[in-house]
Design brief:
By secondary structure, the protein is mostly helical. It has a single domain, classed as Metal-sensitive repressor, helix protomer (Methane Monooxygenase Hydroxylase, Chain G, domain 1), CATH 1.20.58. It is built from 3 helices and no strands. Helix 1 runs antiparallel to helix 2 and helix 2 crosses helix 3.
Length: 94
């Protein structure tokens, strides 16, 4: 079961806050490379990499949640509150 390229696609949600989050993460990556060039301690680099991973995970969560909400709004007659309540139930169950 793979992705069907013929299926309807929705416009991707990507606001300025999400783009800024990704830009900050990009800057953190450059900082890690600089730390490596300057022979910083392994643990310091690991801490920064974990922060980067957390930032990326948060961006993925924002992007997928907002796009899921938009897809539901576009295909159903549900209120924003109903969709957000359903997503919160899913998130709490994970």
């Amino acid at each position: 079961m793979g992705y069907n390229h013929n299926e309807r696609r929705f416009d991707m949600y990507c606001d300025v806050n999400l783009k800024n989050r990704i830009k900050r993460t990009k800057g953190q990556m450059q900082g890690v490379l600089d730390m490596m060039d300057q022979n910083h301690a392994c643990m310091d680099i690991v801490i920064q990499l974990k922060a980067i991973r957390s930032s990326i995970d948060k961006a993925i969560g924002i992007l997928t949640t907002e796009n899921l909400k938009q897809a539901i709004f576009d295909t159903n007659n549900l209120s924003s509150k109903q969709v957000e309540d359903a997503i919160n139930i899913i998130i709490k169950g994970i």
